[in-house]
Amino acid sequence: MQNDIEDHPDLKDAAWIRAANKRAKKEIRRQRRQARGQRHGGTIVSVIALLVIGAVVFGFYKAGKFGEVSLPDVKLPQIGVNTQIPFASTPAEQWPEGEKGIVAPDGNPVYEQVRQALVASRMDPATLYDHKPDKFLAMLAPEVREHVSKELSGWVTLLKTGTKLLPNGIRVTGKMTLGEKDGYPAVTTDYVFAYAFEPPDPKKLVDQMEIVAAIREKVTYMVTPDGLWLADSDGFQYSIACEAAKQGFLAPQFTEPSKPGEGLPGDERKYFSVDGQMPDENTCD
């Protein structure tokens, strides 16, 4: 004779059902605390939770008593984005941190001079947060310094006021090549800088790229006795807050209401690479 699970006498006992649900929910909370890896939305968690509860009830039915049932070891995904590993599952995940990503091809002193300029313009806290790139400006020739100080946008990274990077929140990849221009050594730099921002509520976000913004800058620095001259330059920004960018500041997507496709044109991998031509798509309308 076939018995339906709904006809099992234990499942008709209201007290037993309440106890079963209580234990199942407790186990779900325990497994949620232990979950690791990239986080997903609450819908997935809810579905898995229901499956766990269903497995528990079926286990009760098969075992015939409450105390002898052990729950399956289900790994529940976390909700939100991963702020402990901010570049997880992004193209910048394996990049070197900060200054370690700017490596000179050899010991030529002109490389080191340009490397310091890149660090001062893209990583120095005074530049990022206070919008005072004094170290960078001091490396430039006087004529160039006057021009750049009046129009910082594009030459340095200025974070939108009120935003903050996560610890070790800068990753870098790129290259330098040495040439000559107007009789002076000229170092062409082509780098992508990825910045991971601290969100006010990580659980409200669903995509890791919502906290990561990227800048690619290709600039040629002429090394003269008077200081660095900025020659040819080109750049691109990806996964950004567009209104902040229009004002000359870098901010992540979560700081502004999202618009479909804005700030994220096409395949993200090519925007995190210095191989190939500089992208020419319009990131923000």
Architecture overview:
This protein is of the alpha+beta class and 285 residues long. The chain has 2 domains: 59 residues, no CATH class; 174 residues, Nuclear Transport Factor 2, Chain: A, CATH 3.10.450. The chain contains 8 helices and 4 strands, in the order ααααααββββαα. The longest helix is centred in the N-terminal third of the chain and has 22 residues. The N terminus is likely disordered. Keywords: Membrane, Transmembrane, Transmembrane helix.
Helix content: 25-40%
For the record, what CATH class of the largest domain applies?
Answer: Alpha Beta
Structural class: alpha+beta
Helix segment count? Answer: 8
Given as residue ranges, the uncertain stretches (5+ residues, pLDDT < 50) are 1-6, 24-53
For the termini, the CA-CA separation is 69 Å
Task: Report the sheet-strand fraction.
Answer: 15-25%
What is shown here, in short?
Keywords: Membrane, Transmembrane, Transmembrane helix. The chain has 285 residues and is an alpha+beta fold.
Topology:
Elements: H1 14-34, H2 42-63, H3 109-122, H4 125-128, H5 134-138, H6 142-150, E1 165-181, E2 184-197, E3 212-224, E4 227-238, H7 242-246, H8 268-271
Antiparallel strand pairs: 1-2, 2-3, 3-4
